Amino acid sequence: MSNETSTDSVQQDMFTVLHGQPAPVVTRWSYCAADPYAVTLAVRTRHDRWVEWLVGRDLVAESLEAPAGMGDIRMSPQTVQGYDIVEIEIRSTDGRAILEVDRDLLRHFVTSTTEIVALGDETGRMDLDGEIARLTQNC
After folding, report:
1. What is the C-alpha radius of gyration for the chain, rounded to an integer number of angstroms?
2. Is 77 exposed, middle or buried (0-12, 13-18, 19+ CB in 10 A)?
3. How far apart are alpha carbons 86 and 73 in whole angstroms?
4. Residue 113 contacts by C-beta under 8 Å, 6 or more apart in sequence?
5. H or E stretch including 77?
6. Closest to 116 (Cα-Cα) out of 3, 5, 2, 1
7. What 8-state DSSP symbol labels residue 103?
8. Which residues 6+ apart lie within 8 Å of 96 measured at CB?
9. pLDDT digits (tens, 9 = 90+) for 41-97
10. Residue 5: what pLDDT?
11. Which CATH number applies to 3-123?
12. Fewest beta carbons less than 10 Å away: which of 11, 20, 24, 108?
């Protein structure tokens, strides 16, 4: 799997198990300092399309040690057949999916994001005036 890091972004591909399915699926985890609170989780479908979810970076970090999330995405550390994983439950109006990702790989990704923006330092990286101007330009 690939791993790309720059001074302001990181991207890591990981094989993930879709609960109940025999073959792994590819997920792509992306982080960019321009959106410091969020991680993009993309799942490649069997039709070679990518389906993306925006996940709070703090939720991903918390899930390495304890269950996290109360909304459409819930994450929980588990040990399955001797392997440390994070179980990711994604809910939508179309149904739900449960993914299982290797906890050490996810920890490596989170660590890579903190080398770009430390947890707790996100506000200093945001251009709040620019965001407000962008949101209100058509009002």
Report:
1. 16
2. middle
3. 12
4. 10, 31, 39, 57
5. strand 73-80
6. 5
7. H
8. 89, 90
9. 999 988 889 999 999 999 999 999 999 999 899 999 999 999 999 999 999 888 888
10. 63
11. 2.30.31.20
12. 20
